[in-house]
Specification:
CATH architecture: Up-down Bundle
Protein name: Enterobactin exporter EntS
Mean pLDDT: 84
Distance between the termini: 13 Å
Number of domains: 1
Radius of gyration: 20 Å
Keywords: Cell membrane, Membrane, Transmembrane, Transmembrane helix, Transport
Number of strands: 0
Shape: globular
Strand content: under 5%
Order of helices and strands: HHHHHHHHHHHH
GO molecular function: transmembrane transporter activity
Organism: Novipirellula herctigrandis
CATH topology: Growth Hormone, Chain: A
Helix content: over 70%
CATH class: Mainly Alpha
Subcellular location: Cell membrane
Length: 399
């Protein structure tokens, strides 16, 4: 069966195209936020705090939102979420254009964006199995990764060019506009299924979801794998604006090129991922990808040559996509439909916690040492966690 088979379904195709446009907007927005903070307050901790401000609401709210997503109409929740994100991005664009934005205002609005994303992501991922037959679920999840990483490959480069030509505000304005497509598709979705409380209180629903995640060995090991990978690997994302600006001496276009290389690597990896799963299995695929990411970080720490920097970031993009797509798809296949939002809320919480803690950790290390030392330290830690990940097996749920 072709990996593009789910796109033959009109509803899934409409959602995929709308999500692709939204992902473009999100990546352009992220480029703008990081670059804006690098100018408002260029300290490593403040630049890293942009990702922390996005992650903290997810850490605090993802699991409760997952409970709500399993109890109430997911379609309505998604519509409200898109409208919130649109208004927040438009506000940020207006304040940036008028020149009144400050570093703390940027962090506050970024936190609001994080609240919107914490509602959107677990509820959206829980809704995906409703759009495709069960036999196509793995391919649908992979197509979601392709959409995300295609946007990552192109969006940052486009964002860097637009920011350089027009100004940072354009990144936020385009992101606000990008949410419109998803709203249109959601409004036209004639959804038949309705969530139910099943006679359980909110607290009992929460307990039921957490008990499943804790007692199911595969889900438990998936969450451990997320932490083992993202905590050290986030040294790349949290400090990338400073790597471009301070370490490499590049401008906004160069920053966009760097993130674009990461996205290109992730997109390329999507084509070979099924072969890796088939040949090596999920556990060894994850460990190998983590080791490859560590190698890329080590290369980035010792060179400023554009070619080597580009190759290292492409490698890290591939490793990022392989690791997280494998873990995400395994979680989707393991969770029963009635508690999928709660389970994916746990998955998202583990990601956000690791990103937040990693941003704070590596930002602080960069403050007291240097970017080069920070990248090498993170690479060494990642090699250790890659070896440890082999102890937390997730099996071959994807076959």
């Amino acid at each position: 069966m072709s990996p593009w088979e789910p796109l033959r379904l009109p509803l899934f195709r409409a959602f995929w195209i709308a999500s692709l446009a939204s992902n473009f907007g999100t990546w352009i927005h992220e480029i703008g936020a990081g670059w804006l903070m690098a100018h408002l307050d260029p300290s490593p901790q403040m630049v890293a705090a942009v990702r922390t401000a996005m992650a903290i609401p997810i850490v605090l709210l993802a699991i409760p939102v997952g409970v709500i997503g399993d109890r109430f109409d997911r379609r309505r929740m998604l519509i409200v979420t898109q409208l919130l994100l649109c208004c927040t991005a438009a506000t940020l664009a207006t304040m940036t254009f008028s020149g009144v934005i400050t570093s703390w205002m940027l962090l506050a609005l970024t936190a609001v964006m994080g609240i919107g994303m914490v509602i959107h992501v677990p509820v959206w991922q829980a809704a995906v199995p409703e759009l495709v037959p069960k036999v196509q679920l793995t391919r649908a999840v992979a197509l979601g990764s392709i959409s995300f990483n295609l946007a990552r490959a192109v969006g940052p480069a486009v964002g860097g060019i637009l920011i350089a030509a027009v100004g940072t505000w354009i990144a936020f304005a385009l992101n606000a506009f990008s949410f419109a497509g998803i709203v249109v598709v959601l409004v036209s979705w004639k959804r038949q299924r309705r969530e139910s409380t099943r006679g359980l209180s909110f607290r009992m629903s929460l307990y039921q979801g957490l008990r499943f995640v804790v007692n199911n060995a595969v889900m438990r090991n998936v969450l451990v794998g997320v932490v083992l990978f993202i905590l050290p690997a986030n040294a790349l994302w949290s400090l990338l604006p400073l790597v471009a600006k301070a370490q490499l001496g590049w401008q906004a276009g160069g920053f966009g090129f760097l993130v674009g290389c990461v996205g290109f690597g992730a997109l390329a990896a999507a084509w070979v991922l099924p072969r890796f799963h088939s040949q090596f299995g999920a556990d060894r695929t994850i460990a190998g990808a983590m080791a490859a990411f560590a190698f890329g970080l080590a290369v980035l720490s010792v060179t400023t040559h554009a070619v080597w920097v580009g190759l290292a970031t492409i490698l890290m993009g591939s490793a990022w996509m392989i690791t997280l797509t494998t873990l995400n798809a395994t979680a989707q296949m393991t969770l029963p439909g009635r508690m999928r939002a709660r389970g994916m809320g746990c998955f998202l919480t583990s990601m956000a916690f690791s990103m937040s803690a990693g941003s704070l950790l590596w930002g602080r290390v960069a403050e007291v040492t240097s970017l080069h030392v920070t990248q090498m330290c993170a690479a060494v830690v990642l090699l250790f966690t890659a070896a440890i990940s082999l102890k937390f097996k997730i099996g071959d749920q994807l076959h």
